[in-house]
Design a protein that fits this description.
40% of the residues lie in helices and 13% in strands. It is of the alpha/beta class. The chain starts with 19 loop residues before the first helix and ends in an 8-residue tail after the last helix.
Amino acid sequence: MPQITRDQVKVPVDVAPEMRDEYINNYMKATQGTGRLMLFACDQKVEHLNKDFYGEGIDIADLDPEHLFKIGKEGVCGVLAGQRGLIAQYAADYPDINYLVKMNSKTNLVGVKQDDPYSPQLYDLDAVLAMRDAGVNIVGLGYTIYLGSEYESTMMAEAGELIARAHNHGLLVVLWMYPRGKAVTAEKDPDLIAGAAGVALCLGADFVKVNPPKPEDGTTPAEALNIASTAAGRCGLVCAGGSTVDAETFLTQLYDQIHVGGAVGNATGRNIHQRSLDEAVRLTKAISAITLADYSVADALKVFNGEQDFSL
């Protein structure tokens, strides 16, 4: 299992000197001491409304929002990412989960044909810090930027200021970087994905979440992803999980993203929470076996199938 020591954590210089230990603590928590991130994305109740939580092919348990927290408690995750209000409602009952507060969100009701996307910041950092001071285990923040939107400058400015303030308080920041808008003709173009990763680095993010690229030059998605992960530099790149697929397909893609594409983890939501609690927990363990412990796909499938246990 890959492991890092505290002195191997590269602390950005905008972290206040008195908060360096706090930043390192949060980094080690979020990455389970491996330097790799297993992010359980639970922000879709705003982004996609209820269609991600109820309907054909979705386990009925997913309709109850507490399902997310049960998975976070019983499974193996680095951080559970969700909006401040969602976390505030359940965190007292699930105090041991590492939380990442999603600072902006928008619904999918207004399409790109109607208006370019803009996801405004929903609350000030002080509200999040107050929750942390009250004992909620908050290790980081998340923010989405839609590059190519006519509102990208506003989102970049909000994110830049947020990262500076978050680092000053010892918190990590993950940027969701999605090229989208009327100016964007191919959201998953490899060069554009690599460019988005570089923007996240320049804004000071600790990790960047991108969609897997779709190359058209004969290279594989994982090979194209390697360009983006290199462009991201010290900003660790992770891929969005996307819609639910069978476990073997998902785990194979994840393995290739890490071992070919240079990703430093994953950011998975629907592929986990749309399953029953037992199956979702087993999948978090299988994902973490690959992400955090370098398991092969075959061995990770044994974890998913209940033939082998995995814990940290």
